[in-house]
Amino acid sequence: MKNRQIDATLQSAGLGVASLRDLANAVAITVVEVPADAVSSIGAPYAAGTIPAGTYQGQDADVPTATVINYLVTHSDVPDDAVYAMTKAIFESLPDLAAAHAAAKAIKLDANAIVSPAPLHPGAERYFKEQGLM
């Protein structure tokens, strides 16, 4: 788009991703709405979300969009204690993660944390049970 070789692109990236910020700073862009009803008709793993106003140069209003939930995935051979420690480190380091990237502000230790398209690893289950989520 920046080189005027294409007129549109579909990006799947975190809010404020550098490639789109760079594009929006170089040429006028229009962030196209993905209506919530369209997202809900597709279903998982997509969820309705919003690109907040001002995320990109020239984007003056909130824009409804489709989001994809990120999951941390491992295999069953990873030791339970290692997965427990990783899970605990993530949730106990949320302020540091949010300071490193704004998208981490959306990570919460709540019932949504245990929603997964695959079975939870026993190490992660142990941490979530300790936190009263299971």
UniProtKB/TrEMBL annotation:
InterPro entries on file: TRAP_TAXI
List the Gene3D superfamilies hit by this protein, alphabetically.
Answer: Periplasmic binding protein-like II (3.40.190.10)
List the protein's name: TAXI family TRAP transporter solute-binding subunit
Provide the organism lineage as a comma list. Answer: Bacteria, Pseudomonadati, Pseudomonadota, Alphaproteobacteria, Hyphomicrobiales
